[in-house]
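tokens incoming
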């Protein structure tokens, strides 16, 4: 020992004691140093998403991710692209498919492009509509050719009765055939094959009390047969066949201004046209019946006969109104008959424009306003060309326009399956105008017809605007 150990406080022994006591105390927590964290991060790197790779994938799929409304749609897209789970973890650093989909959904802004314009399924066949208008008027050439061979006072009642009944029956039969067309052309052909001869027989039988002789009855029977056969061809869309069958009438009418064909040709050409029409109808029905059989519909799904009744009643009412107009203005019937082709074209255009308006509007009020404009546009497009046609033929435009507006709006409602209102309104107008003509009631036949048509056109137009101004019928 070199000397005594000092026992005074603060001496060397204190340091020794402190070291010993430090061994028994809990270790102090080291103060936080930024350098330590940096060093730890470098030594133990933390794995996470590869933002650059995810951004590249988002840019590549942006056009398909933008329209998505939920990340699940993006997940479905990635699954369709065939991204495996291992690739998602290694390349993009995400734990799974839905995590990567959520990241892509957040990166790409929402874009909802407008759908491409759909094809107009109601686009009309202009040539076919014009041809149908001509075909409606061509049978009148038969009366022009045979005019010297018959007496209007003797033949007219039987022909008128047979014609009205044929027209009514043809409208109802055509509607039922179109309904059966949904089950196939064969079913429609069977309906026409059964209904057309029955209609011709009923029309001929109705003319018997008004026919004073056998030739008159034969003329009524020929007219009934032609109307039944022509109706079949029109329903089956065989307009060209009908035009070919009527070519003898066209040839005879072209000869009339230059030469007298004689009684043999005057009677023979219409008979040849009738024979050609019947032959064309037989060929069309044979083709329809040979068509592929559609799946048989259950009995409960067959259209009821009562569904076609309002169409037949409208045909009867329209025939009476046209007949009353023809008594006052014979050339008005020709103008009105030819205009049925453009009228059918405008019915298609109305439906196409209404579907376009349905896509372009967002509220019922906006659609109603646009629908009213479409209705007015189609009506004006139909009526305005009739004005110069009426003036050229010496027909009073007012009566012709009112009757044309009545018929077109009624046909428009029928095109949407609203048949009873148009039938009731037209029957009421025909009954009122017919009673005034038969009984001589004031204000006279001509004025009564104008008033009846004006009231009918106003009612039908208002009802069409109320019924078709809603989006539901056009959806």
């Amino acid at each position: 020992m070199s000397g005594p150990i000092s026992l005074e406080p603060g001496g060397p022994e204190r340091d020794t004691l402190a070291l010993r006591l430090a061994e028994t105390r809990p270790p102090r927590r080291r103060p936080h140093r930024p350098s330590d964290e940096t060093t730890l991060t470098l030594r133990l790197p933390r794995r996470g998403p590869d933002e650059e790779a995810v951004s590249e994938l988002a840019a590549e799929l942006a056009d398909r991710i933008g329209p998505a409304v939920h990340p699940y749609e993006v997940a479905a897209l990635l699954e369709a692209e065939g991204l495996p789970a291992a690739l998602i973890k290694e390349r993009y650093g995400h734990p799974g498919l839905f995590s990567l989909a959520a990241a892509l959904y957040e990166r790409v802004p929402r874009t909802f492009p407008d759908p491409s314009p759909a094809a107009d399924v109601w686009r009309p066949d202009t040539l076919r509509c014009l041809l149908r208008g001509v075909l409606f008027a061509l049978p009148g050439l038969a009366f022009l050719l045979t005019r010297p061979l018959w007496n209007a006072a003797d033949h007219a009642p039987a022909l008128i009765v047979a014609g009205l009944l044929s027209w009514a029956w043809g409208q109802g039969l055509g509607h039922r055939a179109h309904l059966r067309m949904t089950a196939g052309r064969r079913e429609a052909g069977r309906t026409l094959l059964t209904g057309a001869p029955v209609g011709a027989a009923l029309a001929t039988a109705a003319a018997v009390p008004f026919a004073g002789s056998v030739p008159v009855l034969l003329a009524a029977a020929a007219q009934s047969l032609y109307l039944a056969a022509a109706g079949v061809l029109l329903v089956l869309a065989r307009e060209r066949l009908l035009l070919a069958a009527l070519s003898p009438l066209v040839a005879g009418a072209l000869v009339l201004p230059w030469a007298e064909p004689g009684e043999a040709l005057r009677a023979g050409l219409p008979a040849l046209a009738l024979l050609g029409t019947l032959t064309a109808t037989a060929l069309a029905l044979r083709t329809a019946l040979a068509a592929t059989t559609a799946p048989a519909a259950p009995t409960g799904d067959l259209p009821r006969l009562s569904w076609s009744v309002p169409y037949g009643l409208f045909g009867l009412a329209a025939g009476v109104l046209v007949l009353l107009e023809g008594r006052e203005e014979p050339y008005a019937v020709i103008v009105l008959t030819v205009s049925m082709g453009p009228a059918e074209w405008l019915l298609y255009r109305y439906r196409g424009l209404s579907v376009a308006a349905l896509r372009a509007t967002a509220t019922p009020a906006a659609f109603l306003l646009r629908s009213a404009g479409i209705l007015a546009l189609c009506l004006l497009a139909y009526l305005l060309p009739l004005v110069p046609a009426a003036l050229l033929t010496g027909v009073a435009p007012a009566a012709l326009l009112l009757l044309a507006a009545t018929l077109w709006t009624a046909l428009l409602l029928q095109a949407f399956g609203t048949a009873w209102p148009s039938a009731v309104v037209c029957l009421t107008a025909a009954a009122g105008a017919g009673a005034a003509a038969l009984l001589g009631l004031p204000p006279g036949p001509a004025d009564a017809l104008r008033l009846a048509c004006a009231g009918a056109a106003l009612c039908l137009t208002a009802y069409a605007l109320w019924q078709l101004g809603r989006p539901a019928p056009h959806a």
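note: The first helix runs from residue 12 to 24.
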